[in-house]
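Board notes (copied after class):
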Amino acid sequence: MRTSHPSSLFLLKKGTRRRKKKKKKKKKKKKKKENKKKEEEEAAASVAKAKDDESLDWSDDRPDAEEQVAQQKAILEFIKSLKKVEDVAHAREENNEKRWRRAVNLSIEADHRFSTEHRERLHGYTRNMRDSVRRGFGRPTHRQTSSRLQV
């Protein structure tokens, strides 16, 4: 294989690049191992400290049973107050929904009423003429209206 050929040079370059990257990775791994050793030493030291601390008497720092009961009661009251607030908020939401629905229904009714009146006006009869419409007289055709206008 000739080295002067550009493709072979490219292959050689590629190979060297890969080798360099591998070396860098190995260095990083060594650092990780060192860090792990340090962490293990620190953990061992903290365990030793904890064992020394266990020998000390902690009875003075612990809260009394009465204080614990009082704290629990306070927490329960706080939770109850939160629930009340949530209930009030929920009730408000329901009321708002009811009001909104009522308003929508009213607006739908108003739209319907307006549209029917508007249609009746367009077609040439008012509310008074509804009876005649019910009897079978419908909307006058174009010919009828035009003949009325001529006469």
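Comment from the instructor: The two ends are 112 Å apart (CA to CA). The chain has a mean pLDDT of 70.
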